[in-house]
Amino acid sequence: MREILNFNTDWLFTAEDVENGERQELDERFFCKVHLPHTTMELPHHYFSETAYQFISWYRRHFVLEQSWRGKKLWVDFGAAMSVATVYINGHRLGENKGGYVPFSFELTDYVSFDGENVLAVRLDSTRRNDIPPEGNIVDYLLFGGIYRDVRLRIVHPVNLGRTVITTPRIADDFATVSVLTEICNHTEAPGDITIQAELFFDGQSVAGATKELAAVLSQSTTQVSFPEIKVNNPKIWDLNTPHLYKAVLTLENAGKPVDRTEQIFGIRSIAFNETGQFCLNGKPVKLRGLNRHQMFPYVGQAMGRRMQRKDAEILKYDLGLNFVRTSHYPQDPSFLDRCDELGLLVLEELPGWQFIGDASWKEIAMEHLTKMIERDVNHPSIFVWGVRINESQDDHDFYVKTNFLAHKLDPTRPTIGTRFLDKSEFLEDVYGFNDFRDNVAGKLSLPRYQPSIVTEYMGHMFPIRRFDNDTRLMQHAANHASIQNVSHGLPELAGASGWCAFDYNTHYNFGSGDHICYHGVMDIFRIPKYAAYFYQSQREVSDGVVLFIARRVVPSIYEDGGDTITVYSNCQKVELFINGDLVGRQNPDRVQYPNLPHPPFTFHKGNQWPNGYGPYNRDFSIRAVGYIHSEKVAEQVLFLEGEPDCLQVTVDHDELIADGADMTRVLIQAVDKNKQTLSLANGIVSLTVQGEGQLVGENPLVLEAGQLAVYVKATRVPGEIAIQAYSKTFGSGMVKLKSTELKEKTVPCSR
Ligand code: GAL
Q: What CATH number is associated with residue 625?
């Protein structure tokens, strides 16, 4: 049976080019030990130069093989490496991969030794490569460098299974048919005598299956096998609220002996755009409400492992109440997509690129990227459309005929989309994608030019906003997003809209605010929410959690921002607002201004309850909101005047890590008062210490921005306790503890 081993641990790395760095014997004194995912350069969260990571580096991994793998086929699978990786085994060049967003694999079998040590070496070029998408011109995001996704060693029998594609051609009320298409790769000289079994599981129970026998499968060849109609009775449908997942287990027997097994997760669901332009999931129209996501994190760029990738999907689904995400502008980490499947979050995934189209060889690489994206991700039920046009590029008839054709050939079940900003642009895809920034601040979208249409971006640079900006601006930003979603929800002929964007991101100097951040997110780069995040959250269904949020800071000089308006974002039916215990009003959602939203905001004006705008106030001054559903009180929030520093609140997103040397979680540090309210003007210095089996990733000392900021804590290779302490002369101290547990996955035996 196949074995897939973790190949992430114990690499040696040097941040420079080395002559003949692939040689088995090499002076490695200038290499240091690292574990993957890895960035070639840790950076401050802003104010750094992109040239800091644009260099060539080398990675090396020494390993030995188990004798039981003799006679097997060995492959190394890279999740991705930015940007051009040349891979060597024992000094032999295996090949080169161009482009940092797609996976690549090389076969090692013929060059490895079972008697001694092996060295896998990677020369990684992270300079700006204008010959490879997305580069060519300047792009509005940074690429960073590193082997920043997982690496695996795949050990398979010479007669093995290849890629598996699963579709669900028929879905009726009480049954569905599942089609499983797979490959048998016979790398032997003998014809195979094959039995292949496909078994479908739901919730651990076998629910259907089929078997095929194939006598004399050709030697040295790949043969396609299909199970066109496996019937599943009473199928559990993948939907936004019930994202049921099935597993297909394929077992291959050669000459009566089981030799390979693969597992593939899939979902049973139908997608379509109807004749009026609506998107339908399982036959029912769903208005798409989304945001764009860059897979970028502070300090480490894209080198963030599975845990935080998965966490981002949870943030998008629950904290931002979305039903879809656009993976702007490239295929994203597979663990992010896995989590979207598990949560019921639809995904628009697109090929790498930004505005620029290069020459013929550039286009060929783009086609390769598109192929790899679809081949890698075709079984994700969350993906509902493929982006086959370089984001915001000019028309290019021949190129886009080809990308569309390729996508349809590789996946006849999903439509294609192309995202443009041109007014008049050739519409070659199935869905028209339009980045519509024109009148966003006036709360407008243009009428869709074609059907079906999705507004793939809005707002972004039209209204950048830092989390530490004043309340007036933060409130306006949230209201702008609410207005555009209101328009989108009111246009039945528009399938939906995704705002720019979910999280602030690092970019080139030429974009954003000049400090290498585009502050376009509804959350900052640390995933700390701005008010607009609560607008999105409040649109979620009550079954995903009641939301009630007063978008307002409360400080003695109450009029300095925001005037007399208090906006409450909530999915309740009625909200009461109290100032100092006195009722300001009991209100319905503001359906006058936002008639189309699932959950319009609640807008209150102070009346005469608000003190006269200039203190002194009692320290117990408060604003309280109470939310009701069916006349029942379901939520309450109280904001007191921001008080004086009490302590530093230190929290972690996860209290357990895996001791694989790369697993990380976020550590949020907040200066709070005695009511645990963040002090919005606290911009002081905080010193951090980590004790035990963890390492700090990020700035230390750290300067708070509007009372808070985050770093990450990374597990070492040794399981144990980790304690993080934060200290500030002004804001006090705080600490948090977590632990790391042993890495259970089998790793490739390391010899140095
Ligand atoms: C768009 C572009 C995005 C981002 C955004 C900023 O034109 O597609 O990648 O740059 O502008 O608002």
A: 2.60.40.10
Q: Shortest CA distance to 185 belongs to which of 215, 157, 152, 227?
A: 157
203: helix, coil or strand? coil
DSSP 389-442: S-TTPPP-HHHHHHHHHHHHHH-TTS-EEEEE--SS----SSEEEEE--TTGGG
Q: Looking at residue 421, which CATH number applies to its domain? A: 3.20.20.80
**Would you call 210 exposed, middle or buried from its count of C-beta atoms within 10 A (0-12, 13-18, 19+)?**
middle
Nearest CA to ligand 1 atom 10: 140
**Residue 367: C-alpha distances to residues 132, 135, 399, 699 (Å):** 11, 15, 9, 39
Q: What is the mean pLDDT of residues 416-438?
A: 95
What is the pLDDT averaged over residues 80-100?
Answer: 98
So what's the pLDDT on residue 564?
79
Residue 538 located in a structural domain: no
Is pLDDT of 612 > 70?
no
Q: Output the residue whose Cα is nearest ligand 1's atom 9.
A: 140
Pocket probe mutation, ligand 1, options 391, 435, 454, max atoms within 8 Å of Cβ: 435
Angle formed at CA 58 by CA 52 and CA 60, multiple of 5 degrees? 145
Whether pLDDT at 500 is above 80: yes
Q: What is the total residue count of the chain?
A: 752
Query: Does 541 fall in a domain?
Result: no
Closest CA to 210 of 174, 171, 166, 271: 166
pTM of the model: 0.97
Using CB atoms within 10 A of its CB, is residue 317 exposed (0-12), middle (13-18) or buried (19+)? Answer: buried
Q: Which domain holds residue 587?
A: 548-640
Is 531 among the domain residues? no
In a domain? residue 534: no
Residue 140 CB less than 6 A away from ligand 1: yes
pLDDT tens by residue, 266-322:
999 999 999 999 999 999 999 999 999 999 999 999 999 999 999 999 999 999 999
Per-residue model confidence as pLDDT tens digits over 474-499: 999 999 999 999 999 999 999 999 99
| Same structural domain, 45 and 125 | yes
Measure the CA–CA gap between 73 and 260, rounded to whole angstroms: 12
Q: Is 392 in the pocket of ligand 1 (CB under 6 A)?
A: yes
- CA 438 to CA 422: how far, in whole Å? 12
Answer whether residue 616 shows pLDDT above 60. Answer: no
Q: What is the pLDDT of residue 210?
A: 97
Question: pLDDT by residue (tens digit) across 546-577?
Answer: 999 999 988 877 777 777 789 999 999 999 99
Total tally of structural domains belonging to the chain = 5
Q: Cis omega before residue 134 (within 30°)? A: yes
- DSSP state string for 312-363: HHHIIIIIS--SEEEETTS---HHHHHHHHHHT-EEEEE-S--S----HHHH
Task: Please identify which of the residues 135, 253, 392, 693 carries the catalytic annotation.
Answer: 392
| Confidence check: pLDDT of 522 > 90 | yes
DSSP strands (E only) in 267-329 = 271-273, 279-281, 284-285, 288-292, 324-327
Residues 29, 94, single domain; the answer is yes
Per mean pLDDT, which range of 131-135, 232-236, 546-550, 641-645 is the poorest? 641-645
**558: alpha, beta or left? (left if phi > 0; alpha if psi -120 to 50):** alpha
What single string gives the DSSP state of each residue in 162-177?
---EEEEEEE-SSEEE
379 and 504 part of one domain: yes
- Catalytic (active site) residue 392: yes
pLDDT band at 581 (very low <50, low <70, confident <90, very high): confident
Could you confirm whether 135 is annotated as catalytic?
no
Tell me the per-residue pLDDT of 96-105, one tens digit each, with 9 for 90 and over: 999 999 999 9
Same domain, 150 and 169: no
626 Rama sector, left if φ>0, alpha if ψ -120 to 50, beta otherwise: beta
